[in-house]
């Protein structure tokens, strides 16, 4: 390992830097956790990765889909062992069937995972598998194993993995040039991890109330696609299957008490939303198919038809199709679309009233909160929108959409001091430090008194984060 990097790692481990303002934590690399990567370091690399993912436009801030994904992920986390840090699940618009875990509990869920699974239990099985890769520290151990068997630094390997997730073409090239061909022992090590994640993932599915057979069902479908060279089955590249692995998953699930598949309508709503908005399907073809087939889930059918009608600016038909789902009360997916329709017609009161009622019941529901804030902004009630968004940011500090909405609220209410600071924070979340500092410098020119001192403190803190990212990247 390079001397400069070694000194840098020791300095950060001995003097970890943490800031409560805006809940930003500067990553430290730290020494041994399993052998060389500490829990704290793993968590902080997750923060680094998420900035890069935001900056690359990889994170989709569809409020209702992200709320659903996190509801499934957090339901599983409640029953998982060895959870050492908060997990963060996010949607990628990638249409391939895959999900990816990274250090620190960051889990990317591709839009294609909804399209190519058939039940919520199959969908949840992939999330459970990825959670177990993190809780068992498979990624940390793989990195340490590579570092021990080569002259590579931990930074080099982590940097290549970050590139591989954010930009697969660049990342795989970087990983190949960095690590070379993996030896047979490394392939075995990875296979052992996959089997362990399968075993623990099935138990986690069952303990969380899902059908543990969901993983085996999905594996059987994927095994039939194993020879398919289509890139949509990216999961088969990251998690290759064998007859033995599929059989073991089936036998383990069969040992557990039998359970029916989940009937949660939100999975079907999510699947329909992905098909209409993220899979690049021909919507007219999809509409005709839904109109002329009986063999389709009721929730999927009418929500998909309502979304298609809305996309075609046919609000009357959209509301007609949503009325077919009236048995589902106070549902995020339905409320989200109704809100969009009301706002498009400038019926702000009709949009706000049901959201405010639900906000009192579920104040931590990100879909309800962000929809309400947006409706308030559209109705020019900036003060109330800001209050709601500031409370939301205390719980979800990394939500870029919330940061953009609060910046918009401040700008429209002519509060340039807070507007510039909020816009700076949005750029910090993207890892764009130059623009973040530019907006903070703009804030210095319009803020007064205590606010001006707060801006100066943020400039220092943001620059410290920038320093870490730059020093880390120079040693990749």
From TrEMBL:
Q: InterPro entries of this UniProt entry?
A: Mito/Outer_Membr_Metalloprot, Peptidase_M48, TPR-like_helical_dom_sf
Domain spans labelled Peptidase M48: 66-251
Q: Which cofactor does it need?
A: Zn(2+)
**Highest taxon in the source lineage:** Bacteria
The secretion signal range is: 1-20
Q: Which UniProt keywords apply?
A: Hydrolase, Metal-binding, Metalloprotease, Protease, Signal, Zinc
Family matches, as PANTHER family: METALLOENDOPEPTIDASE OMA1 (PTHR22726), METALLOENDOPEPTIDASE OMA1, MITOCHONDRIAL (PTHR22726:SF1)
* Name of this chain's protein: M48 family metallopeptidase
The source organism is Succinivibrio faecicola
């Amino acid at each position: 390992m390079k001397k400069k990097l070694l000194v840098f790692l020791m300095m950060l481990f001995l003097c970890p830097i943490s800031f409560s303002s805006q809940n930003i934590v500067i990553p430290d690399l730290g020494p041994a956790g399993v052998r060389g990567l500490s829990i704290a370091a793993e968590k902080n690399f997750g923060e680094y990765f998420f900035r890069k993912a935001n900056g690359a436009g990889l994170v989709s801030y569809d409020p209702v889909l992200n709320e659903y994904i996190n509801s499934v992920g957090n339901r599983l986390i409640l029953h998982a062992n060895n959870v050492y840090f908060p997990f963060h699940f996010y949607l990628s618009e990638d249409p391939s069937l895959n999900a990816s875990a990274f250090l620190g509990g960051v889990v990317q869920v591709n839009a294609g995972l909804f399209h190519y699974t058939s039940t919520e239990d199959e969908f949840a099985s992939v999330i459970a598998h990825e959670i177990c890769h993190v809780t068992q520290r498979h990624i940390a151990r793989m990195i340490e194993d590579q570092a021990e068997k080569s002259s590579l630094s931990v930074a080099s390997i982590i940097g290549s993995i970050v590139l591989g997730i954010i930009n697969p073409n660049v990342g795989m090239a970087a990983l190949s040039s960095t690590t070379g061909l993996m030896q047979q022992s490394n392939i075995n090590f990875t296979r052992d991890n996959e089997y362990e994640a399968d075993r623990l993932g099935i138990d986690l599915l069952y303990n969380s109330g899902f059908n543990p057979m969901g993983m085996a069902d999905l594996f059987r479908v994927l095994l039939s696609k194993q020879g398919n060279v289509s890139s949509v089955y990216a999961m088969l590249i990251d998690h290759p299957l064998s007859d033995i692995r599929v059989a073991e998953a089936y036998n383990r699930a069969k040992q557990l008490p039998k359970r029916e598949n989940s009937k949660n309508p939100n999975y079907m709503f999510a699947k329909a939303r992905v098909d209409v908005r993220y899979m690049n399907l021909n919507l007219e073809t999809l509409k005709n198919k839904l109109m002329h087939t009986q063999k389709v889930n009721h929730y999927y059918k009418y929500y998909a038809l309502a979304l298609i009608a809305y996309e075609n600016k046919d609000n009357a038909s959209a509301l007609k199709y949503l009325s077919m789902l009236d048995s589902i009360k106070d549902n995020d997916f339905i409320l989200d679309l109704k809100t969009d329709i009301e706002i498009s017609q400038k019926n702000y009161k009709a949009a706000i009233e049901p959201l405010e009622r639900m906000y009192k019941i579920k104040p931590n529901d990100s879909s309800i909160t962000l929809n309400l804030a947006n409706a308030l902004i559209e109705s020019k009630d900036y003060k109330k929108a800001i209050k709601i968004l500031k409370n939301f940011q205390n719980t979800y500090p990394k939500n870029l959409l919330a940061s953009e909405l609060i910046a918009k609220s401040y700008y429209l209410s002519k509060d340039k001091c807070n507007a510039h600071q909020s816009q700076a924070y949005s750029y910090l979340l993207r890892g764009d430090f130059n623009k973040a500092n530019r907006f903070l410098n703009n804030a210095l020119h319009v803020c007064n008194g205590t606010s001006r001192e707060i801006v100066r403190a943020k400039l220092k803190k943001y620059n410290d984060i920038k320093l870490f990212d730059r020093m880390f990247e120079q040693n990749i």
